[in-house]
């Protein structure tokens, strides 16, 4: 069976795309969640994925890597949007994409996916990371 690694938050958008991938590609979806320090319920992520028939759920703690390799360089570069907003969400997408690719290789998946809104900034960030 074909495998797809989905960047999965456990929320509505990624749950809908998860089911769509299962039905339209007849694929086994591996739900991948990066813990970069955001507020999230691991139990909710696991429960939602299992309720959708997912057999493989990976929640990876990337807090140290995220801070050391992404946040600190961003701060050193004074990367602040409009002089006010830190870029925590946007800077996380390349790391998530990088880890998705590594997991896809490990499990011999034929594709990776995300649940970002079409033509939105996150879509671009993920897809440039792939």
Question: How does this structure look, described?
Answer:
The protein is α/β, with parallel strands linked by helices and 130 residues long. It has one domain (3-62, 93-129): Rossmann fold (3-Layer(aba) Sandwich). It is built from 5 helices and 6 strands, in the order βαβαβαββαβα. The chain has helices at 12-25, 42-51, 63-76, 88-106, 121-129, and strands spanning 3-7, 28-35, 56-61, 80-81, 85-86, 111-113. A 4-stranded parallel β-sheet has the order 3-2-1-6, sandwiched between helices. It has a two-stranded antiparallel sheet with strand order 4-5. Helix 3 (63-76) packs across helix 4 (88-106) and helix 4 packs across helix 5. The chain is elongated, with a radius of gyration of 15 Å.
At CATH level 3, the topology is Rossmann fold
- Structural class computed from helices and strand pairing: alpha/beta
CATH architecture: 3-Layer(aba) Sandwich
Corresponding CATH superfamily: HUPs
End-to-end separation = 22 Å
Mean pLDDT, as a whole number?
Answer: 94
| CATH class annotation | Alpha Beta
The helix fraction, in percent, is: 40-55%
- N to C succession of SSEs: EHEHEHEEHEH
Count up the domains: 1
**What is the radius of gyration computed over CA atoms, rounded to a whole number of angstroms?**
15 Å
Order of strands in the sheet with the most strands? 3-2-1-6
Shape: elongated
Got a strand count? 6
What composes the largest sheet?
A: 4 strands, parallel
**What portion of the residues fall into strands of 2 or more residues?**
15-25%
């Amino acid at each position: 069976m074909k495998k797809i690694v989905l960047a999965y938050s456990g929320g509505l958008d990624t749950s809908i795309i998860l089911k769509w991938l299962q039905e339209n590609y007849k694929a086994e979806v591996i739900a991948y969640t990066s813990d970069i320090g955001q507020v999230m319920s691991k139990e909710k992520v696991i429960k939602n994925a299992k309720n959708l028939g997912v057999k493989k759920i990976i929640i990876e703690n990337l807090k140290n890597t995220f801070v050391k390799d992404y946040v600190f360089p961003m701060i050193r570069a004074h990367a602040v949007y409009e002089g006010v907003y830190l870029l925590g969400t946007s800077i996380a997408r390349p790391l998530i994409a990088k880890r998705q690719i590594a997991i896809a290789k490990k499990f011999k998946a034929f594709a990776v996916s995300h649940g970002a809104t079409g033509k939105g900034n996150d879509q671009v960030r993920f897809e440039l990371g792939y």
